[in-house]
Amino acid sequence: MAAVATCGSASPGSAVATASKSNVTSFQRRGPRASGTNDSGPRLVSIAGTRPSVRNGQLLVSTGLPALDQLLGGGLAIGTVLLIEEDKYNIYSPLLFKCFLAEGIVNGHTLLVASAKEDPANILQELPAPLLDDNSKKEFDEDVYNHKTPESNIKMKIAWRYQLLPKMEQIGPVSSRFGHYYDASKRIPQELIEASNWHGFFLPEKISSTLKVEPWSLTPGYIKLLQFIQNIIYEEGFDGSNPQKKQRNVLRIGIQNLGSPLWGDDICCAENGSNSHSLTKFLYVLRGLLRTSLSACIITMPTHLIQNKAIIARVTNLSDIVIGLESFIGSERETNPLYKDYHGLIHIRQIPRLNNLICDESDVKDLAFKLKRKLFTIEWVQDNYLRQERNIYPPGFSYLLKQKDSAWGEGSLQHSTFLMSFLAKATAFASRLVRHSEPLKQTGSGRIHQAAGPRLWHDGRRQEAPGLLGIPL
Amino acid sequence: MFVELNNLLNTTPDRAEQGKLTLLCDAKTDGSFLVHHFLSFYLKANCKVCFVALFQSFSHYNIVGQKLGVNLTVARERGQLVFLEGLKSAVDVFFQTQEEPHPLQFLREANAGNLKPLFEFVREALKPVDGGEARWTYPVLLVDDLSVLLSLGMGAVAVLDFIHYCRATVCWELKGNMVILVHDSGDVEDEENDILLNGVSHQSHLILRAEGLATGFCRDVHGQLRILWRRPSQPTAQRDQSLTYQYKIQDKSVSFFAKGMSPAVL
C-alpha cells in the first residue's frame, strides 16, 4: 500500500507559515517529501483502511460497499460528506449506513454515531458481519463465476449493440484491506465492537430543557451535535492539533435521519418553516470541520419528506457526494419485468471535483441495487438485456434454431420474417408496461386504439427519446 | 487560465478591460472551472486579488491553480492574494467568540442581518496601499460562490446590497474588476436565488453561463458555455452579443468547440 503524508501542509522554507497553527488539510498531494526538512516530523505513515486515489492522490476510505466505491471513483475522500437520500420506507438506507460503520470497525477507525431515533449502542449491535473467512469467500466466488461465464463467451445476436458497451464488473473479495463484503443477515461479532473506539450521540440524552446557548438560527440539536463533533475531533487529535499522537487514525461520522422532525427541525413538516436555514448552516459548518480533520461523514436524510424543493437543491450543493435510493416497493415499477431481479434504483446525483477540474463520473447511469443472498449489490440495469438475450426467442423457436441444417437458421428468409413479426409484437407488448412521454392523441371516433409507442419523431422535430426508465419525477 | 477561453473572450492578461463585473452562472453542471480560469488569469495579470472562497478549501484552489500555472501560496505571501477561506472561518466563528467583527459574523446571528462586515473586509483588502510603489495593476474581487450566502441565512436583498457596495467600491472607485459565481437553480423554484441571479445579471457586463447538455450526460461534451456581452450603462447601445460553445474539460485545460463539432463526433 502506498504511504501517504498525512500531516502538515506548510511549504518548506517559509517561516511565516509556521506561525499559524498547524494546517492539517485532508487534501494532500501524493508525492515524496524531502527528507531532512525541519518541519515537525511529517512522517510517511499509512493509516489502515485508506488508500490514495489514483487520480489526484486524495486519501480515500471505503464506504463499506465495494461496488459503490467503484462508482465513486475509488472510495469516499477524507474530509468529505456523503449524503444519502433515503428511500421512501427507509429500508435500504440504514443498510448503507451500517455498512459504512462496520467498515470502520473492521479497519479500526474511530466511530461517531449520531441519531435522534435510536441509541447508538443499539445501532452498533445491529451492524452486519464482515465476510472475512474463506468459506464465505468461496461461496461468493462461485456466485460471481456463474454470473460471468455465460455472457462473456456468447456473441450477442439481437441485442448486439450492448456488447460494445461497458459491463459493470463484479469485484470478488480482494484480500487487501480496502473494502470488505458484509453479510446483512448476520450480526457483527461482539468482540469486534468492544475492541473498537466509538462515541455515540443520542439526541434525547444530550438535549436538556434549559439550554444556555445563544439564540442562533440553528436548532439546538444541531448546535449540540456540532459541538460534540468538534470536541471529539479536538480531543482525539484528528485535526492535527496534537502532534504527539502515536498513531494517526480516521474518524468516521455517521448521522442518521438528519432533517427529520426528531432533530427538532421542521423542514419536513412545513414549507416555509421558521428555521429553514438551520440544516444548510449545519452542513456548511460540518463540512468546514471535516475539511480540517482526518474524518469522513455519512448522512442519511429523508429528502422525500422535505416540502420545499429549493432546500433540497441547496443541501445537494452543500454536500460533496449525493446518492439517492429509490426502492420499488409500492411503486408501479415493482411489476415491470425489466426490474424483476432488483429492489430499487440507485442514483448518483453528484460527485465532487476535489483538487481537480474533472471528476470521476462513471459512464453507467442506470444503476439498480438488490439485496440478494445477504449481499447488497449494485448493477447496471441494461445488464438484464445481456442475460435475457438468450431468452428473447420463444422456446419453440430456439428448438428449431438448434436443428442441424435447419431452414430457420440465421440469414434465411423464414428467420428474418419470423423475427420481424415477433419483434413487432414483442415491442408492442412490452411498451404497454413502459412509460412513454405522453399518450397518443386519439383522432376520430374509430375503435382502433393505438397504443402509445416509443415516440422518436414528433412534429418533424426529434423529441428526446424517453428511454425505458421513464422520465424521472 | 485557459488559452482557448481567452481567445473566445478576446482578452489577454495584458490588455483586459477594467471596471467590469463578470457573472459566472451554472445550471445543472459545475461551473467552477470558470472560477479557476479567472483566478489564474488575474493573478497572471499582476492584479491584486481578493478571493472570497466560500465553497472549497484553500488547498483545493491551490492544487488546481498549480495545474493552471499559478501558485496561490506564493501569491498570498507576496500580498497579491487575500484569501478568505469560508469553511475554515465558519468553524472559527461558530466555536469561538470573536472580539472584533469577523467577516462571517452573520453566522452567529439568528436573524438575517447584513453583510457589512464582509464588505469591510473586502474594502480593507483591496484598498490601495499609500506610500508604496504601485506593484499591482488593479484590484479584483472574486466570489465563489454567492448562492452559499443564501444557504447560510442571508436574504437575497442583503446579498444584492453587498454586491452593490462592492461594485461601487471596486469597479467604480478603484477601477477594478469583479467576478461572481451564482448557481442557477433552474426548474427548482428557489425564489431567493432567482432574485439574486436576475439582480446580478442585470448589473453585469459579461455573463458566462455553463449549462449541462439538454440531452443528459455525455462523456465527450461536458456542457455548453454561453457568453453574453452586455452594456448595462448604455441602454440604447447596440444589441448584446451572444455566443455559444460546447466544451470538454480535461486535466489541465478546457477545449471549446462549436456546437456539434466535438472531435469525438466528427
UniProtKB/TrEMBL annotation, chain A:
Q: Which UniProt keywords apply?
A: Cytoplasm, Nucleus, tRNA processing
Q: Name one GO biological process term.
A: tRNA wobble uridine modification
Name its cellular compartments: Cytoplasm; Nucleus
A Pfam family annotated for this chain is PAXNEB
Extract the InterPro entries matched here. Answer: Elongator_complex_protein_4 (IPR008728), P-loop_NTPase (IPR027417)
Which coarse location class describes where this protein primarily resides?
cytoplasm
Q: Where is this region: Disordered?
A: 26-45
Q: Pathway, per Swiss-Prot/TrEMBL?
A: tRNA modification; 5-methoxycarbonylmethyl-2-thiouridine-tRNA biosynthesis
Q: Name one GO cellular component term.
A: cytoplasm
Residues in coiled coil: none
> What family does this chain come from, according to its entry?
Belongs to the ELP4 family.
| General function of this protein | Component of the elongator complex which is required for multiple tRNA modifications, including mcm5U (5-methoxycarbonylmethyl uridine), mcm5s2U (5-methoxycarbonylmethyl-2-thiouridine), and ncm5U (5-carbamoylmethyl uridine). The elongator complex catalyzes the formation of carboxymethyluridine in the wobble base at position 34 in tRNAs.
Q: How does it assemble?
A: Component of the elongator complex which consists of ELP1, ELP2, ELP3, ELP4, ELP5 and ELP6.
Q: What PANTHER family is this protein classified in?
A: ELONGATOR COMPLEX PROTEIN 4, PAX6 NEIGHBOR PROTEIN PAXNEB
The name of this protein is: Elongator complex protein 4
The gene coding this protein: ELP4
TrEMBL record, chain B:
| The keyword tRNA processing is assigned to this record | yes
Gene Ontology biological-process annotations = tRNA wobble uridine modification
Q: Tell me which InterPro entries the record gives.
A: ELP6, P-loop_NTPase
This protein's major location comes to cytoplasm
Keywords, alphabetical: Cytoplasm, Nucleus, tRNA processing
GO CC, one annotated term: elongator holoenzyme complex
Q: In which pathway does it act?
A: tRNA modification; 5-methoxycarbonylmethyl-2-thiouridine-tRNA biosynthesis
Cellular compartments annotated: Cytoplasm; Nucleus
Query: Has keyword Nucleus?
Result: yes
Domain of life where this protein originates? Eukaryota
Role this protein plays? Component of the elongator complex which is required for multiple tRNA modifications, including mcm5U (5-methoxycarbonylmethyl uridine), mcm5s2U (5-methoxycarbonylmethyl-2-thiouridine), and ncm5U (5-carbamoylmethyl uridine). The elongator complex catalyzes formation of carboxymethyluridine in the wobble base at position 34 in tRNAs. Involved in cell migration.
Q: Which family does it belong to?
A: Belongs to the ELP6 family.
User: How is the subunit organization of this protein annotated in UniProt?
Assistant: Component of the elongator complex which consists of ELP1, ELP2, ELP3, ELP4, ELP5 and ELP6.
Q: What is this protein called?
A: Elongator complex protein 6
> What organism is recorded for this protein?
Theropithecus gelada (Gelada baboon)
Gene giving rise to this polypeptide = ELP6
